[in-house]
Amino acid sequence: xxxxxxxxxxxxxxxxxxxxxxxxxxxxxxxxxxxxxxxxxxxxxxxxxxxxxxxxxxxxxxxxxxxxxxxxxxxxxxxxxxxxxxxxxxxxxxx
Length: 95
Fold this sequence. Notes:
Blueprint: H1 10-22, E1 37-41, E2 47-52, E3 55-60
């Protein structure tokens, strides 16, 4: 990810705040309306797809159990790797 913040203009900020205060939404839903939620699990272990309206997210989770080092038998390791598509935000880079 780039070392930058997403910056919006003061006009955009004012517009967003006025819409929130007046209960207006760009998609014409009311304040407490929600989009259809669908969660499905794939054939492969650890695969999940979530759809919220027209937004779709795919996730793949995997794990590996390994023995701890002999000098630290009660300790373990946990690593996370997250890859985000640049389509999610211009702030994300591939690789």
